[in-house]
């Protein structure tokens, strides 16, 4: 990855407060992150650290925040096909077959779309299931359809919100390989939210570690292990310890926490 | 041929068994009825025996009378149904899709819904005469509401998570309606169609009994005046038969359009 390449995604001082009837929750506090084209970033942290909130803001699904999110120099204004999104659940249209789910609002009669859909089905290893309905698919297969659907429109950045969280360990390992395959083929910039340290280390170039209350970035670890990575290797375990110890580093005391009591 | 393994597998009974199971009750009932009539236990004037009814049916069919009435009734029901469900679907979509339409239209529609058929039937006759209009409109009024309500419910029941997907994929407003709202409302819409058919049928009887000179309902009320009870029974049976046939048709349609769903089959 050349350092000279311009930042593709620029998250600048993003803060977000949820206002509910019971009061306000400070979900994100001054989060800044620059992502270069083709990078694979994982956002990791305990629940409540605002990682999913940040992803929705980048996707344009949430526009009530402070700060700026720039994609290729332009401020993100609403969701669009330049930002692919994979949700925690596959969210397929149950009345459409696999191939029509991937095409979604585009017509398969268009030869260009047809060709891309067939390529993507092969890329996510779903050959033979093009005409199947979502209810006939396993969780992992359905999530691969969702990934293919997000990739069809050639997004500049693919945002993934704990996409493999609901899958069993074996399926998850397989999905991680599929996703790396996709990334190495397409070189799409990936922003991947997870709470699984192994997953973060296995996938990312850079691991962004977040902390809760208020959600903010605690540290960024550059992960330069060569692909394909072996989870059982000592280099992998070392990287894993680095991430873990980042979580266990003592926080600098915050005086304000006590002052109010 | 090898014997199929039976352990743990519930054997599906064959077709003949299913039909036999379903016919036990009707056959017993008809047999008892025929017997009671023949033995003079019940008045054959009020309860003509099944055989008499069958004879009357054959006579009416061969005389061509039945077809004439049936055709007229069918056309009325079809016109009223098409008008009612067409408007029901249109307003159901409108009110379901737009909050403003819901606020301005739904209260009035709900008010009209609560007015019983029989209460407005005389008024319809006064307004639209005893011609076809009053009958078709009465049927349409009945058929309108089930489809209207179910279309509305279907649209509002669409999964919000799928709307988020549609936003992320950049669906246009039109695509959102065509590719997301209508397909997800379709199970409800088809349920509405089935209910509307039932109500249209009911409206037909009301319309034809009140003011008419043709149709199955007229044939029945005419026969009643002359104590031709078998003809009344033939009319009732026809209503039931056509009703079931139409329902079967809609269910076939349902199976074709909703085959992506996997439901509990008992």
From TrEMBL, chain B:
Annotated membrane topology: Multi-pass membrane protein
SUPFAM superfamilies tied to this protein: MetI-like
Segments passing through the bilayer: 16-36, 74-98, 110-130, 136-155, 199-219, 231-253
Principal location class: membrane
Entry keyword annotation includes Nuclease: no
Family matches, as Gene3D superfamilies: MetI-like
Record GO biological process: alkanesulfonate transmembrane transport
The UniProt record lists the keyword Repeat: no
A family per Pfam: BPD_transp_1
Gene Ontology CC entries for this record: plasma membrane
Keywords on record: Cell membrane, Membrane, Transmembrane, Transmembrane helix, Transport
Compartments reported by the entry: Cell membrane
Matches recorded under InterPro entries: MetI-like, MetI-like_sf
Domain ABC transmembrane type-1 stretches: 70-250
Family to which this protein belongs: Belongs to the binding-protein-dependent transport system permease family.
Protein name according to UniProt: ABC-type nitrate/sulfonate/bicarbonate transport system, permease component
Organism: Thermobacillus composti (strain DSM 18247 / JCM 13945 / KWC4)
């Amino acid at each position: 990855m050349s350092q000279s390449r311009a930042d593709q995604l620029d998250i600048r001082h993003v803060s977000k407060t949820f206002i509910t009837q019971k009061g306000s929750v400070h979900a994100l506090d001054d989060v800044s992150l620059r992502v270069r084209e083709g990078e694979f970033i994982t956002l990791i942290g305990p629940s409540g650290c605002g990682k999913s909130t940040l992803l929705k803001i980048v996707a344009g699904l949430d526009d009530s925040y402070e700060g700026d999110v720039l994609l290729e120099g332009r401020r993100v204004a609403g969701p669009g096909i330049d930002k692919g999104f994979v949700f925690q659940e596959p969210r397929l249209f149950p009345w459409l077959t696999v191939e029509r789910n991937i095409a979604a609002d585009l017509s398969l009669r268009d030869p260009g779309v047809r060709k891309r859909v067939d390529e993507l089905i092969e890329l996510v290893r779903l050959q033979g299931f093009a005409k199947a309905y979502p209810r006939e698919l396993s969780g992992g297969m359905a999530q691969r359809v969702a990934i293919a659907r997000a990739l069809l429109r050639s997004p500049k950045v693919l945002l993934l919100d704990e996409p493999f969280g609901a899958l069993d360990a074996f399926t998850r390992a397989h999905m991680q390989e599929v996703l790396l395959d996709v990334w190495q083929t397409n070189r799409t910039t990936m922003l991947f939210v997870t709470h699984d340290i192994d997953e973060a280390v296995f996938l990312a170039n850079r691991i962004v570690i977040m902390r809760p209350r208020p959600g903010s970035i605690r540290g960024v670890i550059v992960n330069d292990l060569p692909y394909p990575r072996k989870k059982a290797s000592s280099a992998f375990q070392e990287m894993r310890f680095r991430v873990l110890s980042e979580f266990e580093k003592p926080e600098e005391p915050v005086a304000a926490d006590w002052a109010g009591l | 041929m090898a014997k199929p393994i039976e352990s743990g597998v519930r054997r599906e009974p064959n077709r003949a068994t299913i039909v036999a199971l379903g016919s036990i009750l009707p056959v017993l009932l008809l047999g008892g009825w025929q017997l009671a009539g023949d033995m003079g236990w019940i008045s054959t004037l009020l309860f003509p025996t099944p055989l008499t009814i069958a004879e009357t049916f054959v006579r009416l069919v061969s005389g061509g009378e039945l077809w004439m009435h049936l055709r007229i009734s069918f056309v009325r029901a079809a016109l009223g149904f098409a008008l009612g469900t067409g408007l029901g679907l249109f307003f159901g979509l409108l009110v379901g899709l737009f909050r403003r339409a819901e606020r301005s239209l739904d209260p009035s529609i709900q008010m009209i819904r609560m007015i019983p058929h029989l209460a407005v039937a005389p008024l319809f006759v006064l307004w639209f005469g005893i011609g076809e209009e009053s009958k078709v409109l009465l049927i349409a009024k009945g058929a309108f509401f089930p489809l209207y309500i179910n279309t509305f419910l279907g649209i509002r029941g669409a999964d919000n998570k799928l709307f988020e997907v549609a936003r992320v994929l950049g669906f246009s407003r039109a695509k959102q309606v065509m590719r997301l709202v209508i397909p997800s409302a379709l199970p409800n819409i088809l349920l509405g169609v089935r209910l509307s058919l039932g109500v249209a049928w009911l409206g037909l009887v009301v319309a034809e009994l009140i003011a008419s000179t043709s149709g199955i309902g007229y044939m029945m009320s005419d026969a009643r005046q002359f104590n031709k009870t078998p003809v009344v029974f033939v009319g009732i049976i026809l209503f039931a038969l056509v009703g079931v046939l139409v329902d079967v048709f809609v269910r076939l349609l349902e199976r074709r359009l909703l085959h992506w769903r996997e439901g509990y089959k008992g």
